Amino acid sequence: MFDIAVAAGGEGVLTEKLNRAGIRTIPIPFLQRDISIIKEFLSLFALLKIFKSERPDIIHLNSSKAGGLGALAARISSLVTRHSLASLHGRSGPLIVFTAHGWGFNEDRPYVARLIIFLAQWITVIFCHKIITLSRAMHSQAMYFPFSRKKIFFTEQGLRPAELLPREEAKQELTGALSKTNSGNKEFPGLWVGCVAELTKNKGVVYLIEAAGKLTDHDFRLLILGSGEDGEKLRLQISDTKLQDKVFLLGFVLDAAKYFKSFDIFVLPSVTEALGYTLIEAGQAGLPVVATKVGGIPWIIKDGESGILVPPKNPEALAGAIKKLLDDGGLRQQMGQKNHELVSQKFSFDKMLKETVDIYTKP
């Protein structure tokens, strides 16, 4: 139905996966996460060149920066190029769709910065024809953008089930990775608490490590999979609190979800979160969850049934919830089964795909 090409900045795991899947990729020179006025202009011109060459009927944008630059480039492109699908929707250019993976004004920033981000994201919404939100919480917030309500769509997100390794095999592989980074230690006993997250301020990992420090009398190991700008800061926190034998940073782990069966409990301590795909993966693996009550997380985790939700930035509440699950194997099993049941029923990849195609094709 669609001839797809993916334009992205840089190279990495995403590009490799797309190439393996036979999907054509196009590099966007100079596009990066950090803000640089000169590079933003260069990326804008690169996008204009790509749109002129590719002549897409649909431009689907992801991430805040790519959303803003891509929507502006698409609007400029539509002034000079006509597209075959445009007549179906009564437009002179391509359909511009933006998936909002999180509203930046929810982040822990000064008020003025959040206001500027709100205005910038509103401009992105204005430039786009249709906006997809990932959770009911995000959808409700999008209603505050003036004059934009008719173009906001909520789609239930879904993931294809991960290819999970059996528990013992997953534990063996992660134990090997742990041994290489922890002075040759070959034993990692006790229950395993897992967290998969970028090591950034928004993910709240600093509060999870502080919570682990309040549970030193319990026999467990906290495994944190992910990389990010706060990595060194978190390593120092672990060292300063003498948690080297309790808390382990494994860095980026490719296809981390396949190791979820090695965990007994999954934790996501986010300060802000649009949805939380790792929670869906935890549900697919049948894990009980401790997470913060922010953004779209309550849409996935039913508090008291499939997991325990706590306030953000609250190490004491995190520690209390983790302790409750560490102490009660029956509760872990019960919540894990319920989590698997709810996620399997709610988050269908096929349903998400159908709803997205409808957004593409219906006026």
Describe the structure in your own words.
The structure is a single chain. The protein is of the alpha/beta class and 363 residues long. It is built from 14 helices and twelve strands. The protein has helices at 13-20, 37-54, 64-80, 86-89, 111-127, 136-142, 167-181, 205-213, 231-240, 277-284, 297-300, 315-326, 329-346, 349-361; strands at residues 5-8, 24-27, 58-62, 95-100, 130-133, 152-154, 191-196, 220-225, 247-251, 265-268, 289-292, 307-310. Helix 2 crosses helix 3 (64-80), helix 8 crosses helix 12 and helix 10 packs across helix 13 (329-346). The longest helix has 18 residues, at 37-54. The two termini are 17 Å apart.
Secondary structure elements and their pairing?
Blueprint: E1 5-8, H1 13-20, E2 24-27, H2 37-54, E3 58-62, H3 64-80, H4 86-89, E4 95-100, H5 111-127, E5 130-133, H6 136-142, E6 152-154, H7 167-181, E7 191-196, H8 205-213, E8 220-225, H9 231-240, E9 247-251, E10 265-268, H10 277-284, E11 289-292, H11 297-300, E12 307-310, H12 315-326, H13 329-346, H14 349-361
Helix pairs in contact: 2-3, 3-5, 8-12, 10-13
